[in-house]
Amino acid sequence: MLTKRIIACLDMDGGRVVKGVQFVNLRDAGDPPECAVAHARDGADEIVLLDITATSDNRQTVLDVVSRTARSLFVPFTVGGGIRELSDAAEVFDAGADKIAINSAAVKDPTLIGEIAARFGSQAVVVAIDARRVKEGSVKSGFEVFVAGGRTPTGRDALQWAREAAACGAGEILLTSMDRDGTKSGFDCELTKLVAEAVSIPVIASGGAGSPQHFIDVFREGHADAALAASIFHFGLEDIGQLKRELQAANVPVRWPC
Length: 258
Hints:
Radius of gyration: 17 Å
Helix content: 25-40%
Largest sheet: 8 strands, parallel, barrel
CATH architecture: Alpha-Beta Barrel
Distance between the termini: 19 Å
Order of helices and strands: EEEHEHEHEHHEEEHEHEHEHH
CATH class: Alpha Beta
Strand content: 25-35%
Number of strands: 12
Strand order of the largest sheet: 1-4-5-6-7-10-11-12
CATH superfamily: Aldolase class I
Oligomer: single chain
CATH topology: TIM Barrel
């Protein structure tokens, strides 16, 4: 059985790591390279750095921060935010990223997924999907895609978009429940399972982690291939090594030693 990955997420605004609840009320959580190194040392299998205001501010990713963070890491490093075209992706890879995450630009132009995959390989392309529950009948699955850091509804069905992204060449889906983001109330296992069963590529669950049981639930019930968290790692509420030990005790396969 493939091991389940634990991924630490760094949401960045203005060159600093921040964290909020449901994409608002952001508070400072530290320097990106320092946070990344600390999480990797604690046992994170991968690091994701998301420049969450790059798209809404109409600017590119802060490449110097990407470069400084990449130089400090020995685990896979994914960067997202402000990547609008192939040249943007190339600059982020040149700065040291192993993978890039695209969201708003991919929704606007799905062919971008294939362009980046053709140049750098599907394994290096993560399509990030921010989804929120909406009233019955709005979209078929009940989950709508939002873009621009969760600010803009698209009217698109999250399940259908995940399928399309995979067909276009995405190597992974980073699926964030906007309803659960920062709440520590648990991952949205229903949403995660819907998408995981609809695509043949790995699905990373995001939004709502608050305890080891939440990770166990999303791996068992949500069929996630990986789980990403921010708040519980940034503010010392959970040690990643201890989390992995609890997952192992629950017979969830994780990368060891940690």
